[in-house]
């Protein structure tokens, strides 16, 4: 019969047929995994500002919340799917921002096997999706791939000092495998990839009981509880405000470099200095207590952002002292603690 004479037509590979057919080139359908989380929801806000973008969020709500996206729910250009990235996902998109993964140590250590699955199977699924539809995919990797770094500050060329069998390994080794998968799909299947190595990020919408240091100190200061500095207090981190982070991620996605590229704020502080700054800005009456630390805590961390400056024309704009009050305002509203006149 006539059907057997029809030759199967192989779908064109990258770029996605969506970019050529019913949408004009400038229209983009963008998937954000983990889009109900802290960084993801701010990224969605920025992407939705461009009226040519359609945004699909896939999130299992482990550490994220629909509340972070409430202003977009019901908007025709926006779609929210309850989905776990360890399961296959079938959607037609042009770009994938792959953020899904718990980021705070208390949450990623809660079910370490699930954290590994999210990083490995989750990233594999998103790469399979990118391959099928010809989408460009960006992975939010982490400065934790440098482990307890022996090189300071950390350039992208540093291979890191990571414990493969420790309690943080589900996260840092998981992200290292995710980076490997990204490059293998790129080399083997020609997938367009982007890798951001994100350094500690803070801002409004962080979970109040998230366990990370900036959210802990601000919540403690507002509740009038002692700030808990984990020993020795001389360990350092470099904190990037979330609007700067989102700007860096979008520039990386839109640019021509695969990365990995460090995105973070080089301003470096000891945890004791951070506690003193929060105390001074938010509640001068509060105490600072030294408490026990957790295993494998990196002693120092600061991004070398030479590549981000040169290749993306990006550098952070918001200083810690300017970002903390913006986060304080959000935490006051959520905790119901008003500012004393
Ligand atoms: P977050 O915990 O607020 O957001 C993660 C989101 O992913 C949440 O909405 C969560 O529900 C979702 N999620 C987790 N597992 C999932 C799964 N299996 N399937 C679907 N959704 C899942 O964390 P964040 O701070 O917004 O971090 C976002 C990304 O940035 C993560 O990939 C994290 O590793 C990376 N990162 C963050 C920081 C930081 O300082 N915030 C630093 C380095 C890297
Ligand atoms: N995958 C997916 N959505 C797609 C295409 C693939 O979630 O649109 C998943 C698929 O289930 C598989 C993974 O991505 O587990 C890797 O896909 P790939 O095609 O690279 O490998 P294969 O399916 O051949 O093992
Ligand atoms: N930390 C602290 N008090 C807290 C929580 C964390 O002093 O209440 C320290 C922790 O020991 C680490 C740093 O703050 O040295 C950053 O920890 P966080 O969990 O925020 O992020 P990490 O960079 O370790 O992923």
Biggest sheet record: 7 strands, parallel
- Give the class from helix and strand content and strand pairing: alpha/beta
First and last CA, distance: 85 Å
Ligand types:
nicotinamide-adenine-dinucleotide, uridine-5'-diphosphate
Q: Helical element count?
A: 10
Q: Indicate the percent of residues in helices.
A: 25-40%
The overall pLDDT, averaged over residues, is 93
Low-confidence stretches: 1-6, 10-14, 16-24
Spatial order of strands in the largest sheet: 3-2-1-4-5-6-11
Find the count of extended strands (DSSP E, 2+ residues). Answer: 13
Helix-strand pattern, N to C? HEHEEEHHEHEEHEEEHEEHEHH
Radius of gyration equals 21 Å
Please state roughly what percent of the residues sit in beta strands, choosing from under 5%, 5-15%, 15-25%, 25-35%, 35-45% or over 45%.
15-25%
Query: Based on the structure, what is the oligomeric state of the protein chains?
Result: single chain
Structural shape = globular
Function: Catalyzes the NAD-dependent decarboxylation of UDP-glucuronic acid to UDP-xylose. Necessary for the biosynthesis of the core tetrasaccharide in glycosaminoglycan biosynthesis.
Cofactor: NAD(+)
Domain NAD(P)-binding: 31-325
InterPro entries: NAD(P)-bd_dom, NAD(P)-bd_dom_sf, UXS-like
